[in-house]
Amino acid sequence: MSATTRNVLGKVKRMVPPMLDRLHKGQLGRVAVIGGSEDYTGAPYFSAMASARLGCDMSHVVCTPAAAAVIKTYSPNLMVHPLMRQSPSREPSREGEDDPEANPDHVARKIIEMLGRLHVLVVGPGLGRDPLMQATVARVIRAARDSNMPVVVDADALQIVHNDPDVVRGYRYAVLTPNVVEFKRLCDALKVDVGAQTSETGKVEALARELGGVTIIQKGYKDLISNGEVTLVSDLEGGKKRSGGQGDTLTGAVATFLGWRKAYLDGLWKDCEMPALEADEMMGLAAFGGSAITRECSRLAFLKKGRSLQASDLTDEVHSAFMGLLGEVDAAKL
């Protein structure tokens, strides 16, 4: 671990809430993952479970009814809400009258009503490219933005940004987590001249500036994290197996750190050792913390599983990764 990484992790640790007797259920993070369709049930589960394993108090999945029936069998610890809808494969159910379940405003309204009970949204895992799903999520993101709720945008939800960048443009509480292909698509859509960037971090900085200061995690051999002004490099060793679903652990981990960010800003505990962390600074720190935890999960899982590593193996390592990188916070010292 480099000295720079160690110093950044020291700041990340200050965001970790101590386990205090006076805290009650829900104060240390209420996260919802929006995604999951008939064909994709694993991704939202891995994201929500990573969030729960890392330490958020309440972890929700908002998905289609077909996905909900499956995801509920994966774990009784998640709260699963079958509120999303896919485009109907038939004509409207009543002649001359539109089916409200095919109206994105109608579907989104039920989800938006949940936002007051949540701290952080993750959108994208298992979402797919269904037009109704995409339109619904776009409306929910805008509503979350109106209430200043942090939003982590991943996977197929990045298609929404690709088609309409203004959904997140200028929103400093949005975190985007594109892989190599998704990053290139975003740069192409926004006409970011990646060829003009000569530094390691130049591309992610240029894209973040073009989107008005959102935080971007450019996933790769190193995770490059930037809002266009401040850039962090997450260079911890990871595993060498690239199985599908590992990015879902990242989104869930980042979401939990964002939930802890809110607890820190709400003053649920007092950090007496150093000057207070700033709200915008903690967006990058949450992204770095989620990246570091995911990379360590991957490293630990690969040591045990090697080529057979799967996304579920990362889920099993979340707490070990947390303890190895950050350890428990000594409440007495705070």
Automatic annotation (TrEMBL):
<feature type="binding site">
    <location>
        <begin position="179"/>
        <end position="185"/>
    </location>
    <ligand>
        <name>(6S)-NADPHX</name>
    </ligand>
</feature>
<dbReference type="Pfam" id="PF01256">
    <property type="entry name" value="Carb_kinase"/>
</dbReference>
<dbReference type="InterPro" id="IPR000631">
    <property type="entry name" value="CARKD"/>
</dbReference>
<keyword id="KW-0520">NAD</keyword>
<keyword id="KW-0597">Phosphoprotein</keyword>
<keyword id="KW-0456">Lyase</keyword>
<dbReference type="InterPro" id="IPR029056">
    <property type="entry name" value="Ribokinase-like"/>
</dbReference>
<keyword id="KW-0067">ATP-binding</keyword>
<feature type="region of interest" description="Disordered">
    <location>
        <begin position="84"/>
        <end position="103"/>
    </location>
</feature>
<feature type="binding site">
    <location>
        <begin position="219"/>
        <end position="223"/>
    </location>
    <ligand>
        <name>ATP</name>
    </ligand>
</feature>
<feature type="domain" description="YjeF C-terminal">
    <location>
        <begin position="8"/>
        <end position="325"/>
    </location>
</feature>
<keyword id="KW-0547">Nucleotide-binding</keyword>
<feature type="binding site">
    <location>
        <position position="126"/>
    </location>
    <ligand>
        <name>(6S)-NADPHX</name>
    </ligand>
</feature>
<dbReference type="GO" id="GO:0046496">
    <property type="term" value="P:nicotinamide nucleotide metabolic process"/>
</dbReference>
<comment type="function">
    <text>Catalyzes the dehydration of the S-form of NAD(P)HX at the expense of ATP, which is converted to ADP. Together with NAD(P)HX epimerase, which catalyzes the epimerization of the S- and R-forms, the enzyme allows the repair of both epimers of NAD(P)HX, a damaged form of NAD(P)H that is a result of enzymatic or heat-dependent hydration.</text>
</comment>
<dbReference type="GO" id="GO:0047453">
    <property type="term" value="F:ATP-dependent NAD(P)H-hydrate dehydratase activity"/>
</dbReference>
<dbReference type="InterPro" id="IPR017953">
    <property type="entry name" value="Carbohydrate_kinase_pred_CS"/>
</dbReference>
<keyword id="KW-0521">NADP</keyword>
<dbReference type="GO" id="GO:0005524">
    <property type="term" value="F:ATP binding"/>
</dbReference>
<dbReference type="GO" id="GO:0110051">
    <property type="term" value="P:metabolite repair"/>
</dbReference>
<keyword id="KW-0963">Cytoplasm</keyword>
<feature type="binding site">
    <location>
        <position position="248"/>
    </location>
    <ligand>
        <name>(6S)-NADPHX</name>
    </ligand>
</feature>
<protein>
    <recommendedName>
        <fullName>ATP-dependent (S)-NAD(P)H-hydrate dehydratase</fullName>
        <ecNumber>4.2.1.93</ecNumber>
    </recommendedName>
</protein>
<feature type="binding site">
    <location>
        <begin position="238"/>
        <end position="247"/>
    </location>
    <ligand>
        <name>ATP</name>
    </ligand>
</feature>
<dbReference type="GO" id="GO:0005737">
    <property type="term" value="C:cytoplasm"/>
</dbReference>
<comment type="similarity">
    <text>Belongs to the NnrD/CARKD family.</text>
</comment>
